[in-house]
Design brief:
heterodimer, A: 47 residues, mainly alpha, 1 helix, elongated, B: 322 residues, 2 domains, two-stranded antiparallel ribbon
Amino acid sequence: MSNLPTRSDEPQLPATRPTSSPGLRFLGWFLITSSVGLVSCQSMFFF
Amino acid sequence: MNERGADTRTREASGKARDLERLLRNARGLDLRIDNLPAVQEQSTPAAAPARPARRVKPFRPVLLWVMSAPLPLASLFALGAGHMGSFLADWLAWGLIAGSAVLTRMGFADAEAGRERRFSRRWRLPLRNLAGLAVGAGTTVAAVLGVGHDWSVGLGFGAVALLGYHLAYGLEPMWQGARLPAQDKSSRAVADALAEAEGRLINIERAAGSIGNPELAERLRRIAGQGRGMLEQIAERPSDLRRARRFLTVFLEGAEQVSDGYARTHRHAGSAELEQNFRTVLISIEQQLIHQRERLREADVLDLDVQIEVLKKQLDQEGIR
């Protein structure tokens, strides 16, 4: 049998938790807080 | 009416379990080249085969999204009190989008928790976390523009920052999940197709395991899926094993998929002890068969290697090297 199928590359295992480094995750939280949080608070005072 | 329907489904599922059991008993007639089949256990009690309880992992919850969006319902009430209906509706819409994003994030991680690893097949999958990222960006933009009164450019900027923050904090996911064995010729494609089909059945069995309330039966199903995956790995490493395993994969794996799917659908409606026992008996037999078949594949591989070594020795003798 020629051209045998070989092992594929490492499968893309679906992530069950956030997988980024702690630093990037903290940056993400900061950006979410400064966008979603800021706009939510602003909407209480400006409408 | 519902009870009659549930009874019918229970009888059908029990019938399928008995059919599969009968199939296992008559396996010799299927020319599977399996000798000394392990006897189907007549009486299997839960105590006879202690199974580890299913591991329960707490689902991931994006608490930050709920906390950050909490002021929006309050803001909508303030806007309503001030007589601004547009802001009232916009704040509720924004909250709905951000809360929906939190729900989609939890569903996305829970979906992955089911362990639907694809090694030999690819499937397009609804990217729940990507939808969640878009929802949080859209919700933030709506709140900024329609709720607070910012310009569209500022609103879109807020939305983009929220989307970037979501990606860094939780991660967006690929649209296509899994991998497929590369195959250039017809025989290789046949192997790849067979493995992809078998993997699909194993994924359905794992899905059924996730929806069965009984931890013991769920764990048995997961072990069966694990053994099945091991067999697929063996075949991927030695595609010639597919010839020996093909009928086993198509007969038993398909049967296991149908029975587990049927049980998962019907057990909630009718908790029949007889059905559960039949199902348990069949699962034990399938697991034993899988272990036995994998062992036979390994033995066949070793035998092939022995034959190759002997042939090589004889060739070396003929050449006068040894």
